[in-house]
Design goal:
The N terminus and C terminus are likely disordered. This protein folds into two domains: 37 residues; 211 residues, MetI-like (MetI-like fold), CATH 1.10.3720.10. It has 13 helices and no strands.
Length: 303
């Protein structure tokens, strides 16, 4: 009996052994999981909250468009400003008949062709002008003259020289989209950090590799700013050109519906132009993020 009591007393007074290195108690593991789950939920809530606020303005505008002409306007105003459901019904009829697809395809063909030509010419010439100061001194006054001349002001000139066919419309789109790409390309190249260029030259890079590895990646964000501006300009100028002289396209659809007093069809064409511009902007933003991924990676690595 005395031996048993002695052993129990020794066990009670003996110091407790510390936990083994690398072992985790269940309470700590549960706490870490709860913290991670709470962080994830907060991030999801923040994203949903920002998305709700972004959509709220659009939903409010659409609700005003639907309810305003119905309840706040008189009958004469509703003729010229039909509610949203009438416009959507007209758009559905145009879609079922294939009319909206044909006009959209015509406008997209002209816009993409002119926009592509402007990209190739604007980026190529912008790189040359930014890299060779003497060429910049020669061409800059001429470029400033044409840059400050509105594209639509030259539409009669393009029509007289190229006719009323596709060439004049593609050319006016290319002209309108050329200068935003050109000027932002020049600005993007000129704002490259000189230390990066000196470091690349000290490593023995030739001119081609210097453009490929240093100048172009650094100038991409500024160039894409011009590309986004050019994308918007190409659509707006094309719609205006199609309103003046065309037999197909969204601009022709809008002006023809207006002259035929098909007001819901006119608004359906305007809505299609808005959605087209929004889709083009989203596409260009996605391309910009794709070509600028190295900046995000470098920023994340440095932080």
């Amino acid at each position: 009996m005395s031996t048993t009591l002695t052993r129990q007393a020794a066990a009670a007074t003996a110091p407790s052994q510390p936990p083994a290195v690398g072992s985790h108690s269940p309470s700590k593991t549960t706490s870490k999981r709860a913290t991670a789950a709470a962080t994830f939920l907060r991030a999801v809530a923040a994203r949903l909250g920002s998305g709700v606020w972004k959509v709220a303005g659009i939903l409010a505008f659409l609700a005003l468009w639907e309810l305003g002409p119905t309840y706040l306007a008189d009958s004469s105003t509703r003729v010229f400003l039909p509610p949203l459901h009438d416009v959507l019904a007209a758009w559905g009829k145009l879609y079922e008949s294939g009319t909206i697809q044909g006009h959209l395809a015509a406008s997209l063909t002209r816009s993409v062709t002119g926009f592509g030509a402007a990209l190739v010419a604007g980026i190529s010439l912008g790189l040359l002008i930014a890299w060779y100061p003497r060429l910049n001194a020669i061409l800059n006054p001429l470029l400033e003259l044409f840059r400050n001349t509105a594209a639509l002001a030259l539409l009669p000139v393009f029509t007289l020289l190229l006719g009323i066919g596709e060439e004049s419309k593609i050319s006016i789109v290319a002209y309108a989209a050329f200068f935003p790409v050109l000027l932002n390309t020049i600005a993007g190249v000129k704002t490259v950090d000189p230390l990066l260029i000196r470091a690349a030259k000290s490593l023995g890079l030739n001119s081609f590799r210097l453009f490929q590895k240093v100048i172009l990646p650094s100038a991409v964000p500024t160039i894409f700013t011009g590309i986004r501006m050019a994308g918007t300009a190409s659509i707006l100028v094309l719609i205006a050109a199609e309103m003046v002289g065309a037999k197909a396209g969204l601009g022709y659809l809008i002006v023809n519906a207006q002259s035929s007093f098909l007001i819901p069809d006119m608004y359906a064409g305007i809505l299609t132009v808005s959605l087209l511009g929004l889709a083009v902007n989203f596409l260009l933003v996605a391309l910009e993020r794709h070509f600028s991924r190295w900046r995000t990676a470098v920023g994340a690595a440095s932080s």
